[in-house]
């Protein structure tokens, strides 16, 4: 990728800043239309919000409550396309809304029937009322006191960071050039019009000036920082909010059914979701002043989730039961500057064109990334004065596409790449080594992550290529030295680099565990 950047003659059609769901979606869309596309990410792909979601591909029941039918329709359509184009990572998941007062059943039942109706042929299953006995049969650990039954409905689940990696691979297969650890530090201008970016390779410190017909700002929570590179007086677009999840052992919620509580004390939806062999509980909604690549949960947020989980499960979790906790910043869109034109292509995502031609795509959610990218590239191609080319992503299968991955066992999330990982194991018995006795992650996954998935650090492997940081932060710390050793062998790094990697990762992972004072 670096070689392709350095040998590029003339400007790129698009330089996309940001390697999360939105930026990667834009890279797939642009490169699959045949545009010369470069994506630059300051850290690792999906390092920020895009690896810290609730792992749901969903229409958004809460948007239905708000009466935003058009957004729900769009999200449900995109949900169906994701299942079609990435079946190795997206699957349907039953949810139960437990009813503890007599009116909740009819109230939520009617709403979810509307959800079914809007989903139409792309629905994942029909909602229906359940008796108290049926609800307990599906969720044996649900709190039975006062339970009046439940409503079951169906939505989608996925692995967000694995999806992001496969999206980067898809964009590369379409001819896109994507570089992680490549930080955009400024914008190039020609007569007040954007002409490219200034960027630094974080690994070497080398600086680059890169020409572009259009620059797309797809940096999520960091959107306003890039906009201020263009116009220091730009008023903020993003109103950041922090969402926190806790991860518990599967024994708290056995089976394959999730719980959805439509309204908690603060008005947020609460989810308890089976994910791999864990239970994900979230999420909170706390306004934050500063955005960070490593947001940390507050003790109040963790306490809120523990208290609310205890209300709905027979077994009450405590801080000692938390295997990991993670925070993500929601880049919610506020009001743009008065003197700048905002084309709002949906109430959920906003496309903003600055007078300089800087294209900013902000807001939105994982489920609608493809539609956001289509809207963005349509507009950016006009700004760049490029030939009009149709979007092809509705039917574009993502890298790893495979309809039946069950036979791959622990490697199922790799889809069509799984046989290649199995071949790595056959070629070298050392690659079959398990990195921790309690988990099925093997050395081959680390080697594969470096060779084919742009992993550069221990964190890349344990946080996003294998998800161990979220599934069991303590165990991931134990794995770090072996991961560092495998990486050093592949990347030709010395022992000092390994020690630094292990130390850095250990400090990071400790932040994913509740503080001892909790």
Question: Any chance you could write out the topology, listing elements then pairs?
Answer:
Elements lengths: L1 H6 L4 E6 L3 H12 L4 E4 L15 E2 L3 H5 L3 H17 L5 E9 L4 H16 L8 E3 L1 H7 L10 E9 L2 H14 L3 E3 L2 E9 L2 E9 L5 E11 L5 H8 L7 E12 L8 E4 L8 E6 L2 E5 L3 E2 L11 H14 L11 E10 L8 E2 L5 E5 L5 E5 L5 H15 L34 H10 L6 E3 L2 E4 H10 L5 H8 L2 H4 L1 H19 L3 H16 L8
Parallel strand pairs: 1-2, 1-10, 2-7, 4-12, 10-19
Antiparallel strand pairs: 3-6, 4-6, 5-6, 8-9, 9-10, 11-14, 11-15, 11-16, 12-13, 13-14, 17-18, 18-19, 20-21
Helix pairs in contact: 2-7, 2-10, 12-15, 15-16
Structure description:
This protein is α+β, with helices and mostly antiparallel strands and 518 residues long. It folds into three domains: 186 residues, FAD/NAD(P)-binding domain, CATH 3.50.50; 158 residues, D-Amino Acid Oxidase, subunit A, domain 2 (D-Amino Acid Oxidase, Chain A, domain 2, 2-Layer Sandwich), CATH 3.30.9; 105 residues, Alpha-glycerophosphate oxidase, cap domain (Helicase, Ruva Protein, domain 3), CATH 1.10.8.870. The chain is built from 16 helices and 21 strands. Strands 3, 4, 5, 6, 11, 12, 13, 14, 15 and 16 form a ten-stranded mixed β-sheet that branches. Strands 1, 2, 7, 8, 9, 10, 17, 18 and 19 form a nine-stranded mixed β-sheet that branches. A hairpin with a 5-residue loop joins strand 17 and strand 18. Helix 2 packs parallel to helix 7, helix 2 crosses helix 10 and helix 15 runs antiparallel to helix 16. It is globular and about 70 Å long. About 2% of the residues have low confidence.
Briefly characterize the structure.
This protein is α+β, with helices and mostly antiparallel strands. It has 16 helices and 21 strands.
